[in-house]
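Let us begin with a simple case.
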Amino acid sequence: MAAGVLLLMGLTADVVAAARTDIGGPFQLTNQNGQRVTEKSFGAPVLLYFGFMTCPAICPTDLAKMARISRQLQQEQGIKVRPVFVTVDPERDTPDKLKVYVKYFANDFVGLTGTSQQIAKITDAYHVYYKKVPSGDKPDQYMMDHSTILFLLDSQGRYLKHFGRGLDERDIERQVAAALAESSAGR
């Protein structure tokens, strides 16, 4: 009896996780080329990460990891996943600056920015925390405290899954492939 209840609880948790509709949603931002884009603009599944360009260590490390995951999925499994970086610091992270920055990670990397209101809307939709933290005497001396979650979206821009920083790249690759296969089978 207890095993049956545990099994039922496990199945319920999986069904609840798979049915989440409270993460993600429509957005309109500006890419590194100055073009307006939406969640449906990429034509492929997306790995989505929120951060800022002047982050000293975490963001560059996570973006490099995203680029490797995207490259490995393409090379080893033929799965095209677009890496997309959304800034939480639109005051400093302009399209021109993003254009140079994202090229350091991969040629197909997309950098997105927008107005403060647009950034607030997308971060609210993905439940991403961010806050400006002063780091000096001048108003332009600040860091951005923020969540470090990697999101997987399908080719239509719908949320599928998210990953914490502690997951191994190979684990993320396997989970991305499985989630995309499951999403395709469910259509």
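The second case is a distinct protein. As before, the sequence precedes its structure tokens.
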Amino acid sequence: MPRITAATVADHRATQHAALLSAAMEILVAEGPAGLTPAAVGARVGLARSSVYRYFSSTADILAQLVEDAIPRWADRLSSATAAGPDLEAKIRAFGEVTLSFVTHPDYALLRALTSVELPQECQDRLDQLHEVLIAPLREVVAEAGHEQPDLVAHLGWAILGEAQRRLAAGADPGPTGRTTLAVLCHALLTGR
């Protein structure tokens, strides 16, 4: 039986789960989705592959749990950014800047990995829900700006940012790309309301 290194079994499992998620993220960033397997994650923390299956049912489940772990961090950053803005334009710019900064963060490896793995429908449904959590702060700003269809406008704004992220990830110059994207985003979201 494995040695328990925490005050309770639940604490031990939580610590072990966190270590496995951290190892999975390290593998994903270093090797890409092809290197991410339950066996590789277990080996990274010194746990047998069969024991890893107590925490993850598959590689897709590892990815889904990594996203589940990352989304609240990014949602908090986006909410904080929009809350701090003194006016609507500043809030939209702040949301855009945080969204674009995602490309330079190790968590961006998750997005690339998700496009290369077929997820079970339940995982995809949960990811869709989490995606809506990320868009929520922009939707609130757009509603505050007086748009009749804040959900549609926020999703269109997200699409603008998504294109900029793709270009940045492909090596586009961050300065001009960021400036142009934020200008287009503000113009698109603040006119026609």
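The chain has a mean pLDDT of 89. The longest helix spans residues 59-84.
Keep these points in mind for the review questions at the end of the chapter.
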